[in-house]
Design a protein that fits this description.
With 951 residues, the protein is of the alpha+beta class. The protein folds into five domains: 159 residues, Rossmann fold; 229 residues, no CATH class; 186 residues, no CATH class; 96 residues, no CATH class; 55 residues, no CATH class. It is 46% helix and 10% strand. It contains 37 helices and 24 strands. The strands form eight sheets. Strands 10-11-14-15-16 form a five-stranded mixed β-sheet, sandwiched between helices. Strands 1-6-5-2 form a four-stranded parallel β-sheet, with helices on both faces. A three-stranded antiparallel β-sheet has the order 7-9-8. The radius of gyration is 51 Å and the shape is elongated. The two termini are 91 Å apart. About 4% of the residues have low confidence.
């Protein structure tokens, strides 16, 4: 598809900007004298650029029939709105009657002849009575002849001196000739055409009482009445008279009286004139402003693309665009979009002083000239294409409006310094299509006129009408919809009804400021360090508190208040420390302070912290959004409490704005806090801890879910760890030539402290590694202690649970130890010499038998006979004492383990007397406060502590 400028070429005067405003106002007298521009003076050129509307066609048919003596109405009244084409129609009649060429050379006239059932139209004399040509008190001198009145002017134009002599006496005294004399004059010089233009403007100049050279008010009214009667009597005479449609156009009191009097005279004559329809205006403007379109296929292609786009997104555009007829309207209006014509003809033409056809031509000539110079590439000229930043275009529209529109257009709607342009400069998505300016131009064109109410009495445009004025094929409607939402909560003079973005929402510009100015004033008074940051904190807490990966989430918390324990913690840095990917020094410095310090004390578990920071590029937008929401909230509160008195519409608008502002905050907050910052260190040999950044996605799913995904995928937090990784860490850092075993607890504690170690999710994560690794002898062996070159409870290839006493043994060393144990066991199990000596039994013991246990039974006497020496039996233990130090942060877990693994075994003996005493010894460096002492005392007494003592 090609842009309009490659298919429809404007006329040279439009391209060059040499068109004159006066050229759009047809002057019948200038045409008759031969001083008008060529396009109006030359009959062929005039009809070539004139679209014969249905109303003009009917009128020309009547005139042709009348001049040919074949019937037709003798008197035709043209009464329609200012700029409705009355004078242009009269000029068409003048050229038809006075042509200097054959009728076949006048484009469009052949169809008129066919409709009139004529083969030719006789040429006729034409008299032009132009009320603006001269004043009624200024006689016209031609040689020795002095013409004073309208009837004198009529006679002179029809027949010169001879005709003037017929009514010279009436002209001299200023009295109207009768209808008989006028009929005789017309009969003598017929066929003839009388064109009366701006009659009211002429007659209203006569004094109410008195007489001047042109006669009196009554004599001129009598002349018009006599003339209408005379024209009826002459079969080949026809009269056309134009009257203004409204009393405002007629002028003051005398003008209104003149209009009413003339309406009575013409009231008996049927007015066949039909004003120019909007579709007819399409062709009128196109012919006057553009050359003939040669690339018809290109035009059809563009129009079809528009029509198809409207059908494809049927729910986004007005209902009338879904009809096949709309494609025909697009073709008729091309290269100007029908919506632009509709707004001008339906809205702007209701403004007093804006001429339906002439006003549209004047405006569009300036618009097209400016767009051509701008190298505009739109497919059609839409309402959103209007270059309102151009002074000529803006003035042409604003001149018809109430004062105050110029600064509104410049500050909000269009221009490099407008609010619309600022939004586009900030967001390339909008700037690519000038989406915001196209939306605001459409709104201005459709809502600026004073009489904007539709037939339903509803003010403004809905989103479907706005999209129709902006969007082109292949462009996404969502861009313009989002642009409309953006201006809805930023513009001072844009008013909105109903729910923002809802089906019934309507938008309109007005010179009266909406509540936005009040909101802007309040925004400036909102304190950033307290109110704004507090609201951002609330929003951030809502979107990040749902994470299950972290044990704690700390929003804008100083490092002194982030606990230094084994829990995994997410820290959101304060907005005063935003992340800048090109200059991250501030955030890096802040993170180093966190991992090294816990208030005034050093931090021992810096590897348990992960950070999130605000994006410096988005932070200002978030702050502005928060200020906006808080300002609207305060306005709504003041309305509810009666401190601010406004009408119901503004109250509803304030509530909707507040609701919309708060609803957007979570999304902007998520878009702002999108950087995960994590301390990194490759190995212990590095002296510097680096801070790596990871970007969070801002669409789809939840912020907490996206945070967990990035942490898992980049192993910032490890939930599942393979034993092989633990083995490699132990080999590199813990197992040495002189120390082939290390406590598992040491590694777990060190992983909290040292950045180069993995950041495991929890103790359970590490316990799962121990359990999985202990089942396979390739990773490590386990034991629960080591002394005198002996491992206590040694295992290799047997599953064990992680506790603080578990030793992890280097696998090759563990295998060697296991082999040694096996050898020792085998040696103990091998056969050896019987250490017991044989004894000789006396005859008294011949009947004795010996059991396998060495018990000799002799009759009823049993005694143990030692075969060699009998080893002494070890005495049994009668008491157990055990002491363990419990880590306070892990007290609950470790006490539970002691109860399950030790105490439960001891109480299995029903004869055992178990006594357990728990000693708690706490030292407070800065002293315990009274609140803490009171709480501990109350809880201790409830738990039946035997001894409670403070020193």
């Amino acid at each position: 598809m090609k842009p309009w400028r490659e298919i429809a070429i404007p006329h040279s005067d439009v391209l060059k900007g040499t068109f004159q405003q006066a050229e759009f106002a047809v002057d019948l007298t200038a045409v008759q004298r031969g001083t008008a521009p060529e396009i109006y003076r030359n009959a062929s050129a005039f009809f070539a650029r004139t679209y014969i509307t249905e109303g003009m066609r009917l009128l020309l048919t009547m005139v042709a029939q009348r001049l040919a003596g074949k019937g037709g109405e003798p008197v035709i009244q043209l009464q329609t709105a200012f700029g409705g084409g009355k004078t242009h129609t009269m000029l068409a009649v003048l050229h038809l009657a006075t042509r200097s060429c054959h009728l076949t050379e006048l484009p469009g006239i052949s169809s008129v002849l066919d409709q009139a059932n004529l083969s030719d139209v006789p040429k006729a004399r034409v008299a032009v009575l132009d009320g603006n040509a001269r004043g009624p008190g200024s006689p016209k001198k031609i040689g020795k002849t002095e013409i004073k009145t309208l009837w004198g002017e009529l006679a002179w134009q029809l027949g010169g001196n001879d005709a003037f002599d017929m009514i010279s006496s009436s002209d001299d005294v200023g009295t109207s000739p009768g209808s008989e004399l006028l009929a005789e004059l017309l009969q003598k010089y017929s066929p003839c055409v009388i064109l009366v233009d701006e009659l009211v403007a002429y007659v209203r100049q006569f004094p109410a009482d008195g007489r001047i050279s042109g006669g009196s008010f009554e004599s001129n009214i009598s002349f018009i009445q006599a003339l209408t009667e005379a024209v009826k009597q002459v079969p080949t005479a026809v009269m056309l008279a134009s009257l203004p449609e409204s009393e405002i156009e007629a002028g003051q009191n005398l003008g209104v009286s003149t209009l009413r009097a003339l309406e009575k005279i013409f009231g008996r004559v049927q007015a066949i004139w039909r004003p120019v329809a909007t579709e007819e205006g399409f062709e009128i403007v196109r012919r006057r402003l553009f050359e003939t379109i040669g690339n018809e296929n290109g035009k059809i292609s563009v129009c079809r693309a528009f029509a198809d786009a409207y059908v494809k997104d049927a729910n986004k555009f007005p209902v009338e665009t879904q009809q096949e007829r709309y494609f025909d309207r697009l073709c008729q209006a091309y290269p100007i979009h029908p919506e632009l014509f509709d707004r001008l003809y339906q809205d702007w033409s209701t403004i007093d002083g804006f001429q339906r056809t002439r006003g549209v031509l004047k405006l569009m000539a300036k618009v097209i000239h400016r767009l051509w110079r701008m190298n505009n590439q739109d497919l059609m000229i839409l309402p959103g294409s209007l270059p309102l930043d151009d002074n000529d275009v803006r003035n042409e529209l604003a001149i018809h409006l109430t004062p105050g529109w110029h600064p509104i257009v410049e500050s909000e709607i269009d221009g490099e310094n407008s609010e619309a342009a600022k939004i586009e400069n900030m967001e390339t998505r909008f700037g690519q299509y000038q989406a915001v300016r196209r939306v605001t131009r459409t709104l201005f064109l459709g809502t600026a006129p004073a009489s904007i109410a539709t037939t339903q009495g509803v003010r403004g445009l809905d989103s479907a009408q706005i999209l129709l004025g902006c969007c082109q094929p292949s462009q996404s409607t969502s861009v313009y919809s989002d642009a409309l939402k953006r201006v809805s909560d930023r513009f001072t003079y844009l008013n909105i009804s109903s729910e923002i973005g809802g089906d019934n929402t309507r938008y309109w510009f007005d010179t009266r400021a909406n509540l936005r100015r009040e909101m802007e004033d309040r925004k400036r008074r909102i304190d950033e360090k307290t109110d704004v940051v507090k609201k951002i904190e609330d929003c951030a807490r809502k979107i990040f508190n749902g994470t299950r990966l972290f044990d704690g989430v700390h929003i804008f918390t100083p490092h002194s208040d982030v606990p230094d324990d084994s829990s995994l913690r997410l820290v959101l840095l304060h907005p005063s420390i935003p992340f800048n990917s090109t200059l991250p020094l501030a955030t890096d410095s802040a993170i180093h302070a966190f991992i090294k310090n816990h208030g005034t004390q050093p931090r021992h578990r810096g590897n348990r912290l992960v950070f999130v920071a605000a994006d410096a590029a988005v932070l200002d937008r978030l702050k502005d959004g928060v200020r906006t929401a808080l300002a609207w909230e305060s306005i709504v509160d003041d309305i509810a409490s009666g401190r601010l008195n406004i009408d119901l519409a503004q109250k509803n608008q304030a509530e909707k704005f507040a609701q919309n502002a708060f609803e957007t905050l979570p999304g902007v907050t998520r878009e702002c806090f999108r950087w995960i910052l994590c301390p990194m260190q490759e190995d212990p040999t590095e002296t510097q801890v680096t801070i790596e950044s990871f970007k969070l996605g801002t669409t789809g799913g939840s912020a907490a879910g996206e945070l967990e995904r990035v942490c898992r995928e980049n192993e910032l937090v490890i939930e599942t760890w393979a034993p092989i990784h633990l083995r490699e860490q132990l080999r590199n850092l813990y197992w040495k030539a002189d120390k082939q075993a290390s406590r598992a607890k040491d590694f777990w504690d060190d992983s909290h402290k040292y950045i180069y170690l993995p950041r495991l999710r929890s103790r359970d994560t590490f316990a799962a590694v121990i359990k999985a690794g202990s089942r396979n002898g390739d990773f490590f062996g386990t034991a629960y202690g080591y002394s005198a070159d002996k491992y206590d409870s040694f295992n290799l290839g047997a599953e064990v649970d992680f506790d603080d006493s578990v030793l992890l043994i280097e696998p090759s060393h563990a295998k060697e130890y296991a082999t040694r144990l096996e050898n020792q066991a085998a040696a103990r199990a091998a056969p050896s010499q019987n250490p017991f000596r044989e004894i000789e039994l006396s005859p008294q013991t011949q009947d004795a038998s010996v059991t396998s246990n060495g018990v000799v039974n002799i009759g009823e006497v049993s005694q143990t006979i030692a075969r060699g020496t009998i080893p002494a039996q070890e005495p049994r233990a009668t008491k157990f004492l055990g002491t363990i130090e419990i880590q306070a942060p892990m007290a609950k877990r470790e006490l539970t383990s002691v109860a399950d693994e030790v105490i439960a075994l001891l109480v299995k003996d029903a004869h055992a007397k178990v006594k357990i005493t728990l000693d708690i010894d706490v030292e407070f460096q800065n002293g315990a406060n009274e609140t803490l002492k009171r709480s501990v005392n109350e809880n201790a007494r409830t738990l039946r502590f035997r001894n409670i003592h403070w020193e």
